Automatic annotation (TrEMBL):
Keywords from the UniProt entry: Exonuclease, Hydrolase, Metal-binding, Nuclease, RNA-binding, Zinc
Keyword Hydrolase: yes
Name of the protein in its database record: Ribonuclease J
Gene3D superfamilies in the cross-refs: Metallo-hydrolase/oxidoreductase, Ribonuclease Z/Hydroxyacylglutathione hydrolase-like
Originating species: Thalassolituus hydrocarboniclasticus
Amino acid sequence: MSPSEHDLFFLPLGGTGEIGMNMNLYGHDDQWLMVDCGVTFPKPGRVSADGTRHHSGEPDTQMPDPEFIAARKDQLAGLIITHAHEDHIGAVPYLWHKLRCPVYCTRFTAEVLKKKLAEHGLLHQVKIIVPETGERVAIGPFEVEFLALTHSVPDPNALMIRTAAGNVFHTGDWKLDPEPVVGHGYKQETFTRLAQEGVLAMVCDSTNATVAGHSASEGDLYDGLRHYIESAKGRVIVTCFGSNIARLLTLSHVADDTGRYMGLYGRSMINMHQCAKRAGVWPFSAGSVDTGHLGYLPRHEVLAVATGSQGEPHTALRRLAAGTHPDFELEPGDRVIFSARAIPGNEEAIQGIIDQLHSIGVEVITADDAELPIHASGHPAQEELETLYRWVQPEIAIPVHGEEVHMKAHAALAKGCGVPRTLTGRNGDLFMLAPVPGIQRQKVRTGRLGWEKGALVRVV
């Protein structure tokens, strides 16, 4: 299967019909362009959207099987990573030897990718090209413009993919945040200009398509976080995603303003903080202290920011709750703040760690319990989706990055915004965008690979 100069194809190998593990292909003029290459971390007992029931003994790290494009890697013009979250970037070190193509990503994402490649001994083997936001880059027969949007990680990019057969607007993960705290913002004219040029298809994030209203801004969280940190009598531990550099910066300001010292706990969080410094998105004036000092400070001066918001084993919060962390032990009167919401499937693990904290007298505040906002989603709710559709005005809407319930709600919303046609499908479906729109169902075999004992193994 090879696209002609008149064809424009979209082929998802991961991330359509599920949340996570994103891998997308665009085909035109005998070449393919890959967008994102991510992983997922399955939970035993959970049934994925594709019907796969996961069991103990499976590899902890899984990713899409790139068999289709690996067999055609001489036609693979390049790989674009839209942002630095694991479900978009995490599979690159595991799969690059099957792809062997240049990787395009912006500054913060490049720093995260370099760290991952270095851990696998690949740093000097992979060609990484770092375009500026707003730059147009020729990648084979595709001209790709990197467009600034906002998300819960610095420097996310949407893509305008131009071809002789038509233009595709690929959103990646996004939201419309008027005050993202760090990184670039967004401008309405960026997207209304696309409508004037003409957009054949918009391939768009569906994660929160069932959520009414508008997502909260990162800039709105300072007051809530300060309130719950300032009112605590003992130590405060905030758990959040380490990639959310804006949240870390807000907590750094809260620490300064409340007389506490902030320390970062957890390898992934420390790595992301280092990448933010190297990429120039962490202000020089914002600081943190060596975590080894926190155990010697008065309790009311401690603000620890820890990994483990999803109840994962072996994380800093799990060790603190179990009393096995080497720096200090939690005591009655300390407070743990969950500045994150549960990813579906993690509810039981999170409740388990909350119960463990309660059993030692630690107060727990979650985003659902808090009267003031202490967490903001990184994905667009319905008002944001409607706004972006009004700006871009595509001829075709293609919902991705969601399970069936999210994509159906997204498709209905797009129709309500006046989009003439919607195409919904799942991994392995071939979306033919030009010359005649349509879908060939399950045109390509898809599946999962796992990383186990230093090697890739087939999972399903």
